[in-house]
Amino acid sequence: MVATAVVLVVWRPWQASVASLPTTACWGALSADDLRPLAQKDHPLTAATKPGTLQATPQATKDGYSCLLSTGSGKDWSMPVVGPDVNLYFGDLQTSRKVDESLGKVQPLAFGDGNLAWEVAGNDYFVKLGIPCTFQDSAGQPAKGYAVVSLHTVYRLGAPVPPTDLRQAEATMVLKVAKLFAQQYPCPGVTLPDRAPILPDFPWA
Fold this sequence. Notes:
alpha+beta; globular
């Protein structure tokens, strides 16, 4: 009974009131309903976003775009979330996933033709969605590359991946940020689905 109570506090957050959640977060891409699966009872969820827009800026080209979602603080952090972040890369869309595949703990996801999405499970858990995009290189010249939207959950209960309902919620958040990024940056020609795909069980060895 005690163990069940702990799990409910950490991973079953529907008891948290809407007042404990930001109305919007992550450049306005996420609503309170989107954020609710990350909330914890008695711990408000906070969001710190930089820069304030997903439009192209020199700062973003160098450092990427970051939205930190977290609940609690210090030793009370039971589920800090890093992201959704957006990082820009030169080269082939497959490159970023190949790096993760070298860990042997990657599951591909389907987010529409021309895009690339996957989950990564190790000590922590990631959902990542890559979209093709043209942006400026360090010399200010147009360059083909891709943007990867990622959400990183620091999972501390000893299981390999978060529960399916949380994974599904995070996939939805990544999709919404990717859609807004593709519009605001902009990344013309990117087509993303209306909804995130139903995530299969994660094949943990």
